[in-house]
């Protein structure tokens, strides 16, 4: 399987409402994108200094699953309308994990 | 529970041997750190442009578990000897996830 992990930092003017709207729409994706084997996302808990602001961790079966998720029209829509307006930096990795 | 997700970029002179040594030592941590409920790590598969180079995703029970992992002497040793010599940037998030 493949684990897709992304961390984001937000622009300084990002509002809690924008983050809530992002989380709400991300929460709809597992029911819309069958390729998602598991899906976790959320704001940083502020336990450590220097952290980023938000993360998404998805598990997909294979490379085709990664494409099915990342390129899904509803995922692309959430990225364009809820992520891009507030994100300063993004750091993503797809890594192989044991089945 | 808390999911701890970190992405790293490596310095340009990082060798495959250094990455293998890092992965080998990370692989010993679950047996040494009982707080780790699950532990995944690995190099980016190069499926997408602009990705980071390596990620670690750990699940801990709670904030105490996060500390038990991050501050564990063996984890600290691996960070000091295997991570810091090769890492250019690090982006971490701890987020709440459903039990």
CATH class of chain A: Alpha Beta
* Overall average residue pLDDT of chain A: 98
The greatest inter-chain interface is formed by: A-B, 32 and 32 residues
Strand order of the largest sheet of chain A: 2-3-1-4
Structural class of the helix and strand makeup of chain A? alpha+beta
SSE order and pairing:
2 copies of one chain form a homodimer.
Chain A: E1 2-10, H1 16-26, H2 29-32, E2 38-43, E3 54-60, H3 63-70, H4 73-83, E4 87-96
Antiparallel strand pairs in A: 1-3, 1-4, 2-3
Helix pairs in contact in A: 1-4
Question: What is the compact description of this entry?
Answer:
Helix content of chain A is 34%, strand content 32%.
What does the model show?
The structure is a homodimer of 99-residue chains. Chain A is α+β, with helices and mostly antiparallel strands and 99 residues long. Chain A has a single domain, classed as 2-Layer Sandwich (Alpha-Beta Plaits). Helices cover 34% and strands 32% of the residues of chain A. Chain A is built from 4 helices and 4 strands; from the N terminus they run βααββααβ. Chain A has a 4-stranded antiparallel beta sheet with strand order 2-3-1-4. In chain A, α1 packs antiparallel against α4. Chain A is globular and about 40 Å long. The mean pLDDT of chain A is 98. The interface between A and B is medium-sized, with 32 and 32 residues. Chains A, B: This is Dabb family protein. Chains A, B: Homodimer. Chains A, B: InterPro entries: Dabb (IPR013097), Dimeric_a/b-barrel (IPR011008), HS1/DABB1-like (IPR044662).
């Amino acid at each position: 399987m493949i684990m897709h992990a992304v961390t984001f930092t937000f622009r300084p003017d990002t509002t809690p409402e924008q983050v809530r709207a992002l989380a709400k729409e991300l929460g709809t994706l597992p029911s819309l994108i069958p390729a998602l084997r598991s899906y976790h996302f959320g704001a940083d808990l502020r336990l450590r200094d220097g952290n980023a602001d938000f993360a998404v961790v998805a598990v997909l079966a294979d490379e085709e699953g990664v494409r099915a998720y990342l390129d899904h029209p509803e995922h692309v829509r959430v990225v364009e309308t809820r992520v891009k307006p507030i994100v300063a930096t993004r750091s993503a990795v797809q890594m192989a994990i044991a089945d």
